[in-house]
């Protein structure tokens, strides 16, 4: 209906212009001056009337296309005044703008939804322009894993952490790899994968990584539970032969007492049997003593503890051993620093770390151990045991927390494993930084 009205209006204007031109031509043919003037004025008016009518529509369309060009879909065209065909045209423009606004709103909602999902997952994600290095997308998890600020360009990493840049951004991990990286002097294991994609003419690289240390810790904790179950089974298996042997010896002694001539008592057999029971019992006692501490660590008795007071107790306990070995022992701590821990368990961890430090630095001519604590800007509390001893070789640094792994002749391989288990129960971690020949720093992070 609107299009029909537009054709009728256009036809009327063209017809009027046509008759004006005919009248002008007739006036020229008769050379009637007043007729020429009147017909000329009428022709100009009709031409302007037609031109204005057509140009007005094109101007409205130009305005609309200009708004589309600059993605300005907020403009509202008047639908309540003006010619009917213009109002209908405006209505159509408004419908287009409304539809695009709804599409943009849905896209924005989907973008925000996707953004929230990506921010909530524990997987680091970054996408950047391969040529310029400009970051297209990065989430908080990626920044936390690598301990970096918000990136605008990966050149920031290249200039400040070249090794990290090479391992993460430059090396391709199409198949997905597990690598160990150094983040602020602490080694962490990550699972990393990368791919390249194109948007128009630009090539981008997408990198996805995950800190698998926490997963390994969880698996290790489950392994400890399974280990304790196995140990219980092994203890029972050890008790069974002891009980059987004792029962046999008891039976032989009773028979010898009742009828010594028929069942003479062999002293050597008796001695051998008792000796076997003794040795096996001693081994079982040692075994039980080793694992008794593990079986007790099922819950924490948490309380607020002054770190300074904790350190002073440790100093009194360890000072005689340190003095005998002429080891300089320093304590550095803020008097106001407090921490919520199971005091007895953390004391056990610190004593274990200090004993290891004493052994590590006793070959040094000027041995020194520093026990310190501080609170980071993020609110984490670090308790550190640092020594200037022989350090830990790189080839065994990743194994020292594995149960039963030890390089000591008389070591059980339980101390550091137990310490890590205690820290896991505190929702904390043990970090290690060691340089062979220079010393080690073991940090309890709460």
Automatic annotation (TrEMBL):
A GO molecular function held by the record: kinase activity
Matches recorded under Pfam families: HATPase_c
Residue ranges of the TM segments: 7-25, 31-51
Enzyme Commission number(s) from the entry: 2.7.13.3
UniProt entry tagged with the keyword Cell cycle: no
The keyword Transferase is annotated on this UniProt entry: yes
SMART domains to which the protein is assigned, alphabetical: HATPase_c
Catalytic activity: ATP + protein L-histidine = ADP + protein N-phospho-L-histidine
Keywords: ATP-binding, Kinase, Membrane, Nucleotide-binding, Transferase, Transmembrane, Transmembrane helix, Two-component regulatory system
UniProt xrefs under InterPro entries: BphY/WalK/GraS-like (IPR050351), HATPase_C_sf (IPR036890), HATPase_dom (IPR003594), His_kinase_dom (IPR005467), Sig_transdc_His_kin-like_C (IPR004358)
Residue intervals of the Histidine kinase domain: 230-446
Annotated protein name in UniProt: histidine kinase
Organism encoding this protein: Aquimarina addita
Lineage, highest ranks first: Bacteria, Pseudomonadati, Bacteroidota, Flavobacteriia, Flavobacteriales
């Amino acid at each position: 209906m609107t299009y029909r009205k537009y054709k009728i209006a256009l036809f009327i204007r063209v017809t009027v212009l046509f008759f004006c031109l005919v009248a002008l031509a007739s006036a020229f043919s008769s050379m009637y001056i007043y007729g020429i003037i009147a017909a000329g004025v009428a022709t100009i008016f009709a031409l302007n009337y037609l031109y204005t009518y057509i140009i007005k529509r094109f101007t409205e369309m130009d305005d609309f296309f200009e708004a589309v060009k600059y993605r300005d879909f907020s403009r509202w065209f008047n639908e309540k005044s003006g010619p009917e065909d213009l109002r209908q045209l405006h209505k159509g423009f408004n419908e287009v703008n409304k539809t695009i606004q709804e599409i943009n709103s849905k896209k924005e909602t989907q973008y925000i939804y996707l953004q929230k999902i990506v921010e909530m997952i524990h997987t680091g994600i970054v996408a950047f322009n391969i040529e310029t290095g400009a970051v297209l997308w990065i989430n908080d998890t990626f920044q936390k894993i690598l301990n970096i600020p918000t990136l605008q360009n990966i050149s920031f990493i290249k200039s400040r952490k070249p090794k990290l840049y090479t391992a993460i951004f430059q090396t391709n991990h199409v198949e997905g790899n597990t690598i160990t990286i150094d983040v602020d002097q602490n080694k962490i294991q990550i699972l990393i994968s990368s791919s390249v994609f194109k948007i128009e003419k630009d090539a981008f690289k997408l990198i996805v990584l995950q800190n698998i240390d926490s997963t390994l810790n969880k698996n290790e904790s489950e392994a400890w539970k399974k280990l304790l179950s196995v140990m219980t089974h092994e203890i029972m298996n050890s008790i069974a032969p002891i009980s059987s042997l004792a029962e046999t010896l008891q039976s032989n002694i009773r028979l010898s007492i009742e009828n010594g001539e028929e069942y003479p008592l062999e002293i050597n057999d008796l001695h051998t049997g008792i000796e076997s029971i003794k040795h096996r019992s001693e081994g079982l006692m040692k075994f039980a003593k080793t694992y008794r501490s593990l079986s007790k660590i099922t819950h924490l008795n948490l309380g607020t503890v002054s770190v300074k007071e904790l350190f002073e107790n440790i100093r009194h306990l360890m000072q005689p051993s340190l003095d005998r070995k002429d080891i300089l022992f320093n304590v550095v701590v803020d008097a106001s620093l407090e921490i919520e821990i199971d005091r007895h368990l953390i004391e056990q961890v610190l004593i274990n770390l200090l004993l290891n430090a004493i052994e590590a630095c006793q070959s040094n001519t000027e041995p020194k151990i520093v026990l310190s604590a501080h609170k980071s800007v993020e609110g984490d509390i670090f308790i550190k045991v640092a020594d200037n001893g022989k350090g830990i070789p790189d080839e065994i640094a990743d194994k020292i927390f594995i149960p039963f792994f030890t390089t000591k002749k008389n070591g059980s391989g339980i101390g550091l494993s137990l310490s890590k288990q205690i820290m896991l129960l505190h929702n904390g971690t043990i970090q290690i930084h060691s340089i062979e020949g220079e010393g080690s720093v073991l940090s309890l992070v709460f």
